[in-house]
Amino acid sequence: MQQSIKKVRQIQGAGTYDSPHGLLYKFDYTFEDDTSISANHKTQQPPFKAGDEVEVVVRGSKDGFSWGQVRKPENTGYNTNSTSQTSGSYQDRQDIILNEWAIGRAMEWEMNQSPPDRVSLRNAIALAKQLKTFAKDLENAELPNHNNDEQPY
């Protein structure tokens, strides 16, 4: 089974197929790399258009004719216009995760260091920024100068 990401050049309807799962619509896809495949879908209209990036799974081939699946690319945040946005979305998600972790640990620290009525969000955010810096580059992180009696922010 071959799997790859390709860009659709052309889609042509090729009839119907009565499967155990109901009526399927057959489409012949041609891609920009001059390969082609036949795939079935549940919708009468093709789910993709020329120019879309799709994931192609070749299930079989015979005499130069291939059949299989054409679907949205997995793990890329499917976007037909730009692949740079998908990597940006991934990085944004990672930044949010790191922020949540740093703020959570900083609030725990602050709540353990201060009486409940004296917890400082400002101090927790300052500590969260330091934790985030340490997490991104622990080898080159500089520790702040402070006395043992002082809080580390």
Quick overview:
The protein is an alpha+beta fold and 153 residues long.
Give a verbal description of the structure.
- The protein contains 2 helices and 5 strands.
- It is α+β, with helices and mostly antiparallel strands.
- The protein has a 5-stranded mixed beta barrel with strand order 1-2-3-5-4.
- The termini are far apart.
- Residues 77-86 have low confidence and may be disordered.
Salient structural properties:
about 35% strand, five-stranded mixed β-barrel, OB fold (Dihydrolipoamide Acetyltransferase, E2P), about 150 residues, alpha+beta
Strand count: 5
Shape descriptor reads: elongated
CATH architecture descriptor of the largest domain: Beta Barrel
- Would you identify the CATH H-level superfamily of the largest domain? Nucleic acid-binding proteins
* Quaternary organization: single chain
Low-confidence sequence ranges = 77-86
Q: Largest sheet at a glance?
A: 5 strands, mixed, barrel
